[in-house]
Amino acid sequence: MRYFISCETTYAFREGPDFSIKFDMISMPPRHRKLLTLAFLVRNGVVPHEERHVLLGLKKRGFGIGKWNGFGGKVERTDTSIASAAVREIQEEANVQVSVEDLESRGVLLFTFEQSNEVMEVHVYVTEKFSGQPSESNEMKPQWYDVSRIPFNTMWADDRFWLPHVLSGKSVQGNFRFAADEDSLLD
């Protein structure tokens, strides 16, 4: 079962044997929200007819250590917008520059973890415009991947459900609940 949100109502959908989508309303208990960003840098292949590439970073410390992910983090009080927080995080984690105007919003994902009363509200962005060469920081080790060869087995379990849509130009909204081990999706 996968979860998606629409406005104020959360729905679960199951793909049935006939590939139809069935919706069930879900109630979510009130929780503290933590505002975060997640950004993906993409580029066309270096040679003609080569796949597009996405820049992922291997998390070296803290939450999500050992997983490949996009670049992002907490929105700080000093950030002038959610998008400006994404720009700051890209600079800090990948050592490249991006303009707020060049970020394309691709949706919002909500994450909850078993035994936590916090909701992580993650704003997802994509950009093809950036300057500088990505380089390792104290938080992330960046590496380019063909979009057809994304290492989902070493990423967050939910990524395989929504990241291909984001990289193909679509917007997403989702709600994912993780077990206390931070690896297993519940429901």
Could you name the key traits of this structure?
187 residues; mainly beta; Nucleoside Triphosphate Pyrophosphohydrolase; three-stranded antiparallel sheet; 2 helices; 10 strands; 12% helix; globular; disordered N terminus
Architecture overview:
With 187 residues, this protein is mostly beta strands. It has helices spanning 82-94, 159-167, and strands at residues 2-6, 9-15, 21-26, 32-43, 53-59, 68-69, 104-113, 118-127, 140-146, 172-178. It has one domain (31-170): Nucleoside Triphosphate Pyrophosphohydrolase, CATH 3.90.79. Helix content is 12%, strand content 39%. The strands form two sheets. Strands 4, 5, 6, 7, 8, 9 and 10 form a seven-stranded mixed sheet that branches. Strands 1-2-3 form a three-stranded antiparallel sheet, with no helix packed on it. Belongs to the Nudix hydrolase family. Keywords: Hydrolase, Magnesium, Metal-binding. It comes from Peronospora belbahrii. Residues 32-171 form the Nudix hydrolase domain.
